[in-house]
Structure formats: C-alpha cells, structure tokens
Write a structure and sequence with these properties.
365 residues, mainly alpha, 14 helices, 55% helix
Length: 365
C-alpha cells in the first residue's frame, strides 16, 4: 500500500481523495466492502474525535498512519503529521490513527472548497474551442474533463449555464454542423436542449472520426502488404527493420559457413599418380601368394634398389639384388644365378616359398 503525496490545493484534493480511499478499500482480501465503508467514515465526520476508535481494524488503522506520514515528509502536512505524532505519544503513549490523519487532510481543503469551487467555476466557463479540426475538439474535451474532475458536483455550474457554454463553443465547428442543426431546430422542451445531449454527441463525433481513421489505416496497410514481402502495418516496418536485417545477416553467414564446409569436405581432384596408385591397389587386391609384403614395396632397402615388386627387373638390377634362396643356402643355380651372391649383402626379406616347402630352386627365380 502506497499513497501519493498530499495535494497542494483544493483543485487536486478530489483526485487525491479518490486514490487514497480506493487504495485502502483494495486492502480487503475477501468479498464485500467493509474496509471501504470503514474508511469512508472519515469524510463526513464533523470532528477528529469521531474517529478515535478503529472499529475492528486497528492494524490497518495504524498502517494507514505510517504510510501517510511517509508520503508527507515535507510541506504543511509533513509538519502537521509530526505534530500529531508527538502530541498523541505524549498524551496517550500511542500512535495517531490513520483515519484521523486522513480527516485532517480532507478537512483542510474542505475549508477552502467554497473558494476553490469559485475558481474552478470560472476556469471551466473560460475554456475555449480553438480551431476546426478533430484534434482541436479533443483538446477542448480534455480541458473540460480536467477542470470538472477537480470540482465537487455541488460546485459545478447549473445545467442551463453549461448547456449555453457548450453550445457557444461548438456551433462554429464544421464537424458538428449536423448536430447543431438538430439542436437549434428542436423545441425548448426537447431532450436535445441539454448539456448532456451536446456533450454526448460531441464525443460520438470524435469516436466516429477515430473509427474512420483506423479503417483507412487498415485498408492502406492491406494494399501495401499485397506488394511487400513484410507486413505493412503502420509503424511496424520501421520498428522491426533492424530485426529483419539481423535475421537476414545471420542467414547469409550460416549459408556462407555451410558452403565453406562443403568445399573443405569435397575430395581433391585426382592426379595421374593417384590414378595409377588406385589401379595398382585394384590389381593387388587380396593377400599375396608368396609374401605378406605389399607388391608395391621396394624389393630391397640395403642396395639402393627401390623398384616396386611386380615390375620386371633388368639384368643389371638382378645383378644388384641379393638372391633370396642364397641367403637360405638353397640356391641350386650357383655361379649361373642372375641374382647377387654376396655374404656381406644377403637378402633380409621374408622367406621364399621354396624355403618353406624345402624344394629346390632353379635359376628361373
């Protein structure tokens, strides 16, 4: 529960009173209006003594006093509340009641109500309708409503005075010509000859103009949306332009990143060497019958011969390549063997099949 600062004059007291009373009434958590009826008693009370009893709401009464004192730390009500707190503490040893503090605020301006009502009366009748647009009509309406809301009902001018005042202000407005014609052609006893009828029809003209303006805005938006890729609601395009640009930018970045990933994952173009290697792999598919050594590995690594296996050797290459059978003392070709027989340069690869089977080997190796 929070209260606004106390009003500075009688013109603002009405709004302050309504705000405070409804705020306190809203504290009731159950159905009914017991709290609201309880706090309303501070308005017709003739003296502060009538509000000495909290009448079943002692906690709420104290809480209202605390909130009022917090809302008026300065000004005349700040001093007034401080005096009430000190006086009640000295005489009763207790806190002042919240309803009593509210009564002091309302009573302060009730003494000024007659003078304030006269000021409000003059301000109301001095309001003028300037211009011939709907906006000027709305401004005139707002001024009248503001002044009337600050006045008590009994302080308002008589209905005949208000009727004449409103007629004089509205009769020259071009949007109200039809209404004024009906007013002027009606009899003096007609219901049209009243402030209420003039005011109600003026508000109807303002409302009708707003409805027409909204309909035109919607129609224009629908026409624009048929040729635009984004909604053409007035003000919406500019409001969300930055959001659409951000989304579009993010989509472009995602697409660019995806293209880079596809390019990096794509296989490189095959070179002639890769093609030859792939063909060699297809020809050498499966295990070799004579050795587990791949066919494309060099025959020897200790004599500089790097010719891949499976490639026919020349006589010079054979003379430099160690004899496989000679390393195992099983070469029957002797000095006629085309391969190298050298104790210092023996074959160190896998054993040939003839060694495993124990059969002899001719120079046909």
């Amino acid at each position: 529960m929070k209260f606004p600062a106390p009003p500075n004059d009688a013109a603002r007291c009405r709004g302050y009173k309504n705000t405070v009373l409804t705020t306190i009434g809203g504290m009731q958590k159950t159905e009914g209006n017991e709290v609201y009826q309880w706090v309303l008693k501070c308005t017709p009370a003739k003296s502060i003594k009538e509000l000495e009893s909290s009448e079943g709401f002692p906690v709420l009464d104290r809480k209202i006093g605390v909130k009022l004192q917090a809302s008026a730390k300065e000004g005349k009500f700040g001093m007034m509340f401080q005096t009430m707190i000190e006086e009640t503490r000295r005489k009763q040893g207790a806190m002042p009641k919240g309803r009593q503090m509210l009564w002091r605020v309302f009573n302060e301006f009730d003494l000024e109500r007659q003078r304030g009502g006269m000021i409000g009366h003059q301000q109301l009748l001095n309001v003028r309708l300037k211009g011939s647009s709907i906006a000027d009509l709305e401004q005139f309406r707002d001024k009248v409503v503001f002044i009337r809301s600050s006045m008590e009902d009994e302080d308002l001018p008589k209905d005949t005075t208000l009727e004449l005042f409103l007629y004089q202000q509205l009769k020259q407005h071009p949007k109200l010509t039809s209404m004024i014609d009906k007013y002027e052609s009606s009899s003096l006893t007609s219901h049209r000859r009243s402030y209420e009828w003039l005011w109600t029809n003026m508000l109807a003209v303002i409302t009708r103009h707003k409805t027409d303006a909204n309909a035109q805005a919607v129609e224009k938006a629908l026409q624009s949306s048929s040729s635009a890729s984004v909604p053409a609601v007035p003000g919406l395009a500019e409001e969300h332009k930055g959001q659409w640009q951000t989304v579009e930018s993010k989509n472009k970045k995602k697409k660019k990143k995806k293209n880079k990933q596809e390019v990096s994952a794509a296989p490189a173009p095959a070179t002639p060497q890769d093609t030859q290697t792939q063909k060699g792999k297809k020809k050498g598919k499966g295990k070799s019958k004579g050795s587990s050594t791949p066919r494309n590995t060099p025959r020897s690594t200790n004599n500089g011969n790097t010719t891949p296996r499976g490639t026919p050797l020349t006589a010079e290459e054979k003379a430099r390549s160690p004899c496989m059978c000679y390393a195992y003392k099983m070469c029957h070709a002797g000095n006629d063997c085309s391969f190298l027989h050298d104790e210092k340069n023996l074959y160190k690869g896998p054993a040939p099949r003839v060694v495993a089977s124990g059969e002899g080997l001719q120079d046909s190796t």
